Structure of Aldo/keto reductase:
Amino acid sequence: MAKHLQDTTKLHNGVQMPWLGLGVFKVEEGEELVQAVKSAIASGYRSIDTAAVYANEKGVGQGIREAIRENNLSREDLFITSKVWNADLGYESTLAAYETSLDKLGLEYLDLYLIHWPVEGKYEEAWRALETLYNEKRVKAIGVSNFQIHHIEKLMKKAAIKPMVNQVEFHPRLTQPELRKYCKEQGIQMEAWSPLMQGQLLDDPTLQEIAGKHGKSVAQIILRWDLQHGVITIPKSTKEQRIIENASVFDFELSQEDLARIDGLNQNLRVGPDPDNFDF
């Protein structure tokens, strides 16, 4: 179990991925974004997650470059993820999208590149492009996002390489036990986006009670719950104090009873789109 902010889990291809990272969904280009990335890295984060559709890769890249310089790090110390958007799913277009992302980020390679959504009839070709990038050693690891079990099974019928990561919506109201079990059996690392349900869980009485017992915030309880379930987590924040607080989850442990109570909050409730029913 992760004991430290820089602890990693080994993906099935041997690449080490940090258990906790910074998400930048809906953070606009600009100084706030650059500072968020810099304060995360300065306070010990080593993983940053962005996506083409977030339209903020330039600022993320700037923050990364400045943080590397200011903290005496090397590029290899960091784990950077981006994702190919739906409009670019296709063999050639996915390869081109990867170059565009690298260009905006100002990086030579990505540690993880994901297919953002399972667009029917398109994600298989996009996966072939990711396999090409991986085989050419242009990217360290490849994976998917928002894939249900049947999407992964369909992908695997033609794929030569199994996804290393599946990044999905995961929080105490959407615990996805079947998907989690399947990914574990397949050796696919699950990763949580929107782990705090966009703030909607912060006044939940059960979580507040458990937080009080441990002397922690509700956010810290949820992030610890992710980690104890073996799920990588990437909470989003632009405030330095919150960024630091979100990472302070390695000095306590939830009991089996705590975990069971949090699991019991599940309502199969999404804040994001349904991977089986989206039209973008």
In short: Residues 124 and 155 are 6 Å apart (CA to CA). Residues 8-263 form a domain with the TIM Barrel fold (CATH 3.20.20.100).
